[in-house]
Design brief:
Chain lengths: 256, 394
């Protein structure tokens, strides 16, 4: 069983996302540790990319900030190495596939294995293209996390039956970003997926308030929050520690 | 592995949210292309509305001046809206309408594809929104107004490099939120499958006509076909029906900008590397660590950091050759064709003209070159004046 399963042992998991290198490499290390301390069960680390096509403005801007001071894939690995000196919390990368392809699949996943990266989420690698990395990732004990969207319908069976780690259920159409209301019929999507797999199901896209988290935790195994966290980092810059801890702990409490 | 491969290139590297829509689009496309009624409706539009077939014009003065191969221009600039883009959008917007969509979106660089999409949307009574980089809205302000006149809404894209690639990003971001009522009318032979195939098929009319026109006029095929390549739609259309005629050389001209040894160019096939971006595996201009590189060209329509997957494949198998043409060479060709033939070419197409000017004198007089004159240059007059240091406001 992968270490990712640990994140879902104790009630609904709270999964936090941040973009590596925003605002700095040192601060990313510090913020990951702060988020863990405040109750994150799993952390998604975004590898910055010039063209994050599936992101809304908040995370796009974080990518711009991280790349402005030239955060590289090797810097992101350094962040992970420093985090791993302090904690064994499950960590996954959120990355567009080109930086991974360019780095070289073998080399990239070997580094992941060495540093204890537990999974990879790639928003531009649907089921049909999973073969790019599936074997190499598996042989390095990195789960390729599958995404299921409100439009997936009959594709759910195919995707879920081969999924590993957890399943990332996209709550809404569109790009990432905070939404006041989630309109998708999540309950029926989640139950369709559960017919095929026993993997934990984590819901993301749009969630930002404790009320939403409490509501969705009734039906999901995990809540994923990205833009709201990145927004706090945007607003507080290098002094986001306290605000991050307060927010994460309020969200984690709402998940219980 | 997904469908839509050209050798190792192509594929469907896109959000799961769009996958069912892409599969549906492919199914509907195949269905309608086999429906004689749809094909007839499209052909009628191409003939009666766009003005096809386009002329194959013998550029006699240019030929004599260069003193080598006979030069023919495939006059896509004479199509309604002034470029080859209309061939593709009439097909795609009609398809969207048949699929029950009520809204189309498009990206645009120079504005030609945006204008063409807005035109087709007006004709077929569809809502239309166009994404255009902020930098491009400035250098092609006339086309912005033109799109608005046609009833389209133009979004000025302020993310990233604020040019064509960012317009594509935002068009995909819009589409992913409104797949139910919207089709993305992509403007070039790029993006995830089935787009490179659909756009190539709709543009293939260029070489289908040209092939027959050469047989009628000259009793033989041209020795070389030259076209400019950004994403590569006019080139793919100009090449496609000649691919099996191995004696016909196929030459694509990329934007060499200020030179391929400077950072200011958009010559992906010359300088780029294999990568995965905008839904496809292909060749892209990239920086260290696979970040997509900012690119530059005097031509907004060639200012794209990648190339369609079928071009990458044609290069790999040695069937087509791709050469960089600099801003300076293109501007000289722009002026040359204007004075020599009374035809002001789009600055994009002028890249192909420039290479023909180098190649023709090295060829025999009984040999033939076809230049795909993909668009007209009215839209570029202001930026070329600026390039030459002429102030039109004085």
């Amino acid at each position: 069983m992968s270490k990712i399963a640990n994140a879902f042992k104790d009630g609904t998991a709270f999964i936090g996302f941040l973009t590596a290198g925003d605002p700095t490499i040192d601060k990313t290390v510090e913020y990951i540790l702060a988020m863990e301390e405040a109750g994150c069960d799993l952390i998604e680390i975004g590898i910055p990319f010039s063209d994050p096509m599936a992101e809304g403005v908040v995370i796009q801007d974080a990518n711009v900030r991280a790349l402005k001071h030239n955060t590289t894939t090797d810097d992101v690995f350094d962040i992970v190495a420093r985090v791993r000196e302090k904690t064994d919390i499950p960590l996954v990368f959120l990355t567009y596939i080109n930086p991974v392809f360019f780095y070289g699949y073998e080399k990239f996943f070997k580094r992941c294995a060495e540093l204890g990266i537990d999974g990879i989420i790639s928003p531009d690698l649907p089921y049909e293209e999973k073969g790019e990395i599936a074997d190499i990732a598996l042989s390095n004990d990195v789960d390729v996390i599958s995404l299921i969207a409100p439009t997936s319908s009959e594709r759910i069976k195919m995707i879920a039956s081969e999924a590993t780690g957890f399943i990332y259920v996209v709550s809404s159409l569109g790009v990432t970003g905070m939404r006041s209301e989630i309109k998708t019929d999540l309950k029926s999507i989640l139950s369709d997926i559960r017919e095929v797999t026993d993997l934990p199901l984590a819901v993301g896209f749009g969630i930002n308030t404790p009320e939403q988290a409490a509501e969705i935790s009734k039906i999901a195994d995990g809540i994923i929050v990205g833009s709201a966290i990145v927004k706090i980092i945007e607003e507080h810059g290098e002094d986001a520690n306290a605000a991050l801890k307060e927010y994460v702990s309020s969200m984690k409490n709402a998940c219980k | 592995m997904s469908r839509g491969r050209y050798g190792e290139y192509g594929g469907q590297y896109i959000s799961e949210t769009l996958m069912n829509e892409l599969l549906y689009l492919e199914e509907q496309y195949c269905h309608y292309m086999n429906d004689p009624e749809f094909v007839e409706e499209l052909n009628t539009l191409l003939r009666e509305y766009a003005g096809r077939p386009s002329l194959l014009y013998y550029a006699e003065r240019m030929t004599e001046d260069l003193g080598g191969a006979k030069i023919y221009l495939k006059r896509e600039d004479l199509n309604h809206t002034g470029a080859h883009k209309i061939n593709n959008v009439l097909g795609q917007v009609l398809l969207a309408k048949k699929m029950g969509k009520t809204r189309v979106i498009a990206e645009t660089g120079a504005g030609q594809h945006g204008v063409a999409t807005a035109t087709a949307a007006a004709l077929l009574d569809m809502e239309c929104e166009v994404f255009m980089g902020e930098v491009d809205t400035k250098r092609q302000a006339l086309n912005v107004y033109r799109m608005e006149l046609l009833g389209a809404k133009v979004h000025s894209v302020k993310s990233g490099t604020k040019t064509l690639k960012d317009a594509v990003n935002d068009a995909f971001r819009d589409w992913i939120a409104r797949v139910h009522d919207t089709n993305y009318v992509i403007g070039s032979t790029m993006g995830p499958h089935p787009f490179p195939m659909i756009v190539r098929d709709f543009q293939a009319v260029i070489s289908e006509e040209a092939r027959q026109q050469f047989l009628d006029k000259e009793g033989k095929l041209p020795n070389a076909v030259i076209a400019c390549v950004g994403g590569g739609s006019n080139a793919m259309g100009a090449f496609y029906n000649f691919i099996d005629d191995e004696e016909v050389k196929l030459i694509g001209c990329e934007a060499g900008g200020k030179g391929i040894d400077t950072p200011y160019n958009a010559a992906a096939l010359t300088n780029g590397q294999i990568g995965i971006f905008h839904g496809m595996k292909s060749i892209f201009s990239q920086g260290e660590y696979g970040q997509i590189a900012p690119v530059y060209s005097v031509s907004a329509g060639l200012d794209y950091p990648g190339v369609g997957p079928e071009h990458a494949h044609l290069r790999d198998i040695g069937r087509a050759e791709y050469v960089p043409v600099t801003d300076e060479e293109a501007v000289e060709a722009f002026e040359y064709l204007s004075k020599m033939e009374g035809i002001i070419p789009a600055i994009e197409s002028a890249h192909a003209v420039a290479y023909a000017m180098k190649l023709a004198p090295k060829m025999n007089k009984d040999e033939i070159i076809m230049i795909c004159l993909s668009g007209r240059g009215d839209k570029d007059v202001r930026s070329i004046a600026e390039y030459r240091g002429v102030d039109l406001n004085e």
